[in-house]
Design brief:
- The chain is globular.
- The chain contains six helices and 13 strands.
- The chain has a domain at 32-56 and 99-252: CheA-289, Domain 4 (OB fold (Dihydrolipoamide Acetyltransferase, E2P), Beta Barrel), CATH 2.40.50.180.
- With 267 residues, it is of the alpha+beta class.
- The strands form two sheets. Strands 1-4-8-9-7-6-5 form a seven-stranded mixed β-sheet. A six-stranded mixed β-sheet has the order 10-2-3-13-12-11.
- Helices cover 23% and strands 25% of the residues.
- One of its GO terms (biological process) is chemotaxis.
- It comes from Idiomarina seosinensis.
- Residues 114-253 form the CheW-like domain.
- This is Chemotaxis protein CheW.
């Protein structure tokens, strides 16, 4: 990358970490593919001495309208029924807020010592995920779309009798940057599954896997209320480090990359 592109990338990552919205310039995409060159599917097993990350189940409650003492006109009942549906997204957001607030910060563990991470690239943006939080890596197979889902939900991919839920990573992580021209250039090759969940992130390039030192990361301060999935920024690699637990919670609740805003409407 050129110096100006490097600076633009760092400004973009800092903007994500600080919950700001700043434009980012285009940059070259020349990663070195070092992983999955000979295998079609690579399953990554966590080390025996590492505890398995437990992902809490998220209960999404449906709002219940208060009882109406007397209902004489049918129009009043219809109005109450119509009000229940739009509240679902708000209830999902509240459920995610409560879950993220009560569960311990899983990323604190990684601030105590070196850990191994996988680096991958999507639409010019490099992302990193701790290997301990990685479920596996799959080459893309047939993806069956599902009607009525958000635009970032690509569909279901069946792998070894397991139904994986496929996320359009570029559209989920940086929808504000995803122009029609950029979208046409994206060529997804792999699906990276998250922990023991059915969720998988699409990626174009697998860059490499290497250890990270906590001091090399600009960690978030507390919980990033807008982007709880962003654990920090790896400055030397100019990439975003993912908080997989928070990411799974948001996906389970059907929420987009900014928690306080509703996800994109279905196509």
């Amino acid at each position: 990358m050129s110096g100006s592109s490097d600076k633009a990338m760092m400004e973009y990552l800092n903007a994500l970490l600080e919950e700001e919205h700043k434009p980012v310039a285009d940059f070259d995409d020349e990663p070195v593919k070092r992983l999955l060159s000979q295998a079609t599917i690579l399953e990554i097993e966590p080390a025996a001495d590492n505890e398995e990350v437990q992902v809490p189940e998220i209960a999404v409650t449906t709002p219940v309208a208060e009882p109406v003492e007397t209902v004489e006109e049918p129009e009043q009942v219809e109005e109450i029924e119509q009000l229940e549906q739009p509240l679902e997204t708000a209830e999902q957001s509240v459920a995610a807020d409560e879950s993220l607030a009560t569960q311990p910060d899983a990323m604190e563990e990684y601030q105590q010592g070196d850990f191994q991470a996988l680096f991958f690239r999507v639409a010019g943006l490099t992302l990193a995920v701790p290997l301990k939080s990685l479920g596996g890596i799959h080459t893309i197979g047939k993806i069956s779309p599902i009607f009525g889902k958000p635009k970032w939900f690509k569909g279901i991919m069946t792998e070894r009798d397991e139904k994986l839920q496929v996320v359009d990573t570029a559209r989920w992580v940086m929808p504000e940057k995803l122009t029609p021209e950029l979208q046409e250039k994206i060529n997804y090759q792999y699906l990276i599954t998250l922990s023991d969940s059915p969720w998988g992130l699409l990626c174009e390039e697998l860059v490499d896997s290497e250890p990270l030192q906590p001091e090399a990361i600009q960690w978030r301060q507390g919980v990033n209320e807008k982007r709880p999935w962003l654990a920090g920024v790896v400055r030397q690699r100019m990439c975003a480090l993912l908080d997989v637990n928070a990411l799974i919670t948001l996906l389970d609740n059907g929420l987009g990359h900014i928690q306080s805003e509703p996800s994109e409407k279905p196509e």
